[in-house]
Automatic annotation (TrEMBL):
<feature type="domain" description="Solute-binding protein family 3/N-terminal">
    <location>
        <begin position="45"/>
        <end position="255"/>
    </location>
</feature>
<dbReference type="Pfam" id="PF00497">
    <property type="entry name" value="SBP_bac_3"/>
</dbReference>
<keyword id="KW-0732">Signal</keyword>
<dbReference type="InterPro" id="IPR001638">
    <property type="entry name" value="Solute-binding_3/MltF_N"/>
</dbReference>
<protein>
    <recommendedName>
        <fullName>Solute-binding protein family 3/N-terminal domain-containing protein</fullName>
    </recommendedName>
</protein>
Length: 262
């Protein structure tokens, strides 16, 4: 550089930032899969502009850490395939056995209670897996696991199983139940009650005792994401911190749910 010449201010600032390590780094993008399984995970377009309590906690944790989030809406069976193929980074709420190729956040992000639902007017009641053979059709969700090996074995072999796929499957179950095209379906208690309240104020359903007990749900992270270890820690820390501060309980309250850890 010749004497008497000075660097333009803009160039000087860029060089200073490079030396000081202050050049802004582009936010890493993550893709989160959404299926309509409200209140755990919701699709805003069909679930009153809600993301679900799990997704809200995940979103805050990742945004605070500087991540950019892309949401993709898909049926559950498609999400399972996307997870297997490494085409989605995060699945917000799942049983571990449903996504065997994914890594899981240590802290549970929710709880589910699977039950058998039928119309109150139906004299039939669920009394164990063998009693399912007494009804014409039992509705299930494609790609779902119900945390009960005996039940899962029956569903794989029985001829009276109606497997539902696509979007808003619990709403489909309830609609087909009202039309008496199925006699019962298996579903999470919280999701079923959420959808029944939205669908009809006169719909009367009865539920069985839990088919698998209170079961933890977990956030799943794809091992193919270059920062999967960091993502696991950020989300786990976010869940843990929000439980301690009361933020998680506050979010649950907006979905008319209470904390399971208290």
């Amino acid at each position: 550089m010749r004497a008497g010449k000075t660097l333009p201010i803009g160039l000087f600032f860029v060089m200073f930032c490079l030396v000081a390590g202050m050049v802004p780094v582009k936010a890493q993008n993550v893709t989160i899969a959404l299926n309509s399984w409200c209140p755990h995970v919701c699709v805003p377009q069909v679930d009153s502009n809600r993301l679900g309590y799990t997704t809200e906690i995940i979103e805050k944790s990742l945004v605070d850490a500087g991540y950019s989030i892309n949401y993709v809406k898909a049926p559950w069976a498609t999400i399972v395939k996307m997870a297997r193929d490494g085409k989605v980074d995060i699945v917000g709420s799942a049983y571990k056995q449903e996504l065997p190729t994914m890594l899981f956040v240590e802290m549970p992000s929710g709880m589910a209670v699977e039950r058998v639902f039928s119309l109150k007017s139906n004299p039939w009641s669920f009394k164990g897996v063998s009693s399912l053979s007494q009804i014409s059709k039992i509705g299930t969700i494609e790609g779902a696991d119900y945390n009960n090996p005996e039940l899962m074995d029956y569903l794989k072999k029985a001829e009276n199983v109606a497997v539902f796929s696509g979007h808003e499957i619990v709403k489909q179950h309830l609609t087909q139940l009202m039309r008496q095209r199925i006699e019962a379906f298996i579903g999470d208690e919280f999701v079923t009650l959420w959808n029944a309240k939205k669908l009809s104020s006169t719909l009367e359903v009865k539920s069985s005792p839990p088919v698998s007990g209170l079961a933890p749900l977990y956030v799943a992270v794809s091992p193919s994401h270059p920062e999967h270890k960091k993502l696991l820690k950020i989300i786990n820390d976010g869940i843990t911190a929000s439980m301690k501060t009361g933020e998680f309980a506050k979010v649950l309250g907006t979905y008319n749910l209470t904390p399971w850890w208290e």
